[in-house]
Design a protein that fits this description.
The chain has 9 helices and 8 strands. Helix 1 runs parallel beside helix 6, helix 4 runs antiparallel to helix 6 and helix 6 crosses helix 7.
Length: about 260
């Protein structure tokens, strides 16, 4: 499986033209995914990008990544800027060499059967190489594009984590505007990260899972911005019950007793 993941990414890299000309003006980087773009609009952050452009104080740059997909070779030809455009020989050769060394250290020092299948995957040469490729890509993007801040919509994907690590190395801030349910799994945020919380419940859960108070900003639910245009005034002469389903119990936001 790690070999498949690595080969899948290398295939995408070969299909893209490498970018060599960069502007030195300060930028804020938005990372998004091909399945988060609908009619040229980026889900959840499109209005933020539009506002930044209107203010004209810093330039937004949007980089697209493609999740694991059998249509990757068809999809990645459709976008102007992708993370694969910033790869170069130094990144590929460096990732391969370092991954060999780290995998050798793991094999020579890990002698127990505890979690061995899981760790064999995570510390396989291919998975380490894949991780390093993305980390080094984002590190280069920060350098050549003069990135001053990174905006993410998740914190669990490989590309998201690579961007967070590169930003920490380069000492620039990261803001996370989740598209999922933050606080449902334990995570230790690096000191340069601020997470936008939809409300007090999300904030409390993030604090329980390891986030620090100073790393949480109460902003409300950005997804709701997209539905305002559908708001209509409806007069009713009876009570209405809204059933808004969500896996609150499964995502550890609420106990079964409290929910039911």
């Amino acid at each position: 499986f790690p070999k498949y993941l690595l080969n899948n990414e290398l295939k995408k890299i070969k299909l893209r033209n490498k970018k060599e000309n960069f502007s030195g003006n300060p930028k804020v980087l938005f990372l998004t995914y091909s399945n988060h773009i609908v009619k040229d609009k980026i889900l959840r952050v499109d209005k933020i990008i539009k506002k930044i452009k209107e203010d004209n104080k810093i330039t937004p740059i949007i980089l697209v990544s493609d999740p694991l997909s059998k249509k990757a070779s068809e999809i990645i030809r459709n976008y102007k800027n992708m993370i694969y455009d910033y790869i170069n020989t130094n990144i590929l050769e460096g990732a391969k060499e370092i991954s060999k060394n780290l995998n050798s250290v793991y094999k020579n020092n890990y002698k127990t059967d505890y979690l061995k299948p899981e760790l064999d995957l995570l510390f396989s040469r291919e998975f380490i190489e894949l991780t390093l490729i993305h980390y080094l890509i984002f590190k280069r993007v920060i350098e050549v594009e003069n990135i001053k801040e990174i905006i993410l919509t998740a914190d669990t994907g490989l590309q998201d984590r690579a961007a967070m690590a590169a930003a920490f190395t380069k000492k620039i801030p990261v803001t996370i505007i989740h598209h999922g349910n933050p606080g449902s799994i334990p995570i230790e945020y690096l000191g340069n990260i601020v997470v936008c919380a939809r409300g007090e419940l999300y904030k409390r859960n993030m604090l329980k899972q390891g986030a620090k108070e100073k790393q949480i900003a109460l902003t409300g639910f950005a997804d709701f911005d997209s539905i305002l245009k559908y708001k209509v005034k409806v007069k009713v002469n009876k009570k209405i019950i809204l059933l808004a389903t969500s896996p609150l119990v499964e995502d550890n936001f609420m106990t079964k007793e409290k929910y039911f």
